[in-house]
Each structure stands twice: as C-alpha cells, then as structure tokens.
C-alpha cells in the first residue's frame, strides 16, 4: 500500500491523521482510496478537470507530472501539498 502524507489543511477531514495507507496504482486510485477512508476529501482535492489548482502531489519525491494518471507503486510515498501563496 502507498503511504500518503496528509497536510494540516485536510486534517479536519481525517480526524487529525497525518498519514494513511491506501491501495492504488495511480494518483486517481489513491485519492479514491482516501475518499473511502475519509468521505468528501476527494471533492477538496479534485474537480472535473483533475487536481484542483491549489494542490500539488508528489510520488516518491517527484511532482506528479501526469496528474491523476501518475503511477503509484505499492511502496510509494505520496504527498499532498497545498500551494503556497505570498508576496
């Protein structure tokens, strides 16, 4: 199972959990697995076009360049990263 790092921004939906173990062969399946564990989280991560613009995902330390179609291995580390703004 992939290990998913959950940022503080979404911990209200996870009961404070910082990590989750989820099965999936790509980012789309991993997010679906998260949504089964924490209903409603997928709606905050995705829109009809794919990942919402304010979220970035890394798989094994690399930006998920293929978005939801990015492959995920059984031992992968997936990180959900909220975009940072500033000026």
Strands, total number: 7
Q: In angstroms, what is the radius of gyration?
A: 12 Å
Helix run count: 2
CATH topology: Ubiquitin-like (UB roll)
Helix content: 10-25%
**Structural domains: how many:** 1
Q: How would you summarize what this structure contains?
A:
With 87 residues, this protein is α+β, with helices and mostly antiparallel strands. It has one domain: Beta-grasp domain (Ubiquitin-like (UB roll), Roll), CATH 3.10.20.
Question: Describe it for me?
Answer:
The protein is α+β, with helices and mostly antiparallel strands and 87 residues long. The chain has a single domain, classed as Roll (Ubiquitin-like (UB roll)). Helix content is 18%, strand content 29%. It contains 2 helices and 7 strands. The protein has helices at 27-37, 41-45, and strands at 2-5, 19-22, 46-47, 50-51, 55-59, 62-63, 77-82. The chain has a 5-stranded mixed beta sheet with strand order 2-1-7-5-6, with helices on one face. The chain has a two-stranded antiparallel sheet with strand order 3-4. The protein is globular. The model has no long low-confidence stretch (mean pLDDT 94).
Index terms:
87 residues; alpha+beta; Ubiquitin-like (UB roll); two-stranded antiparallel sheet; 7 strands
Helix and strand arrangement:
Layout: E1 2-5, E2 19-22, H1 27-37, H2 41-45, E3 46-47, E4 50-51, E5 55-59, E6 62-63, E7 77-82
């Amino acid at each position: 199972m992939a290990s998913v790092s959950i940022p503080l921004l979404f911990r209200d939906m996870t009961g404070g959990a910082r990590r989750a173990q989820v099965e999936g062969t790509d980012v789309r399946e991993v997010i679906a697995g998260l949504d089964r564990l924490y209903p409603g989280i997928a709606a905050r991560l995705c829109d009809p076009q794919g990942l919402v613009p304010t979220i970035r995902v890394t798989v094994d330390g690399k930006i998920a360049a293929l978005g939801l179609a990015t492959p995920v291995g059984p031992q992968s580390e997936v990180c959900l990263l909220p975009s940072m703004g500033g000026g």
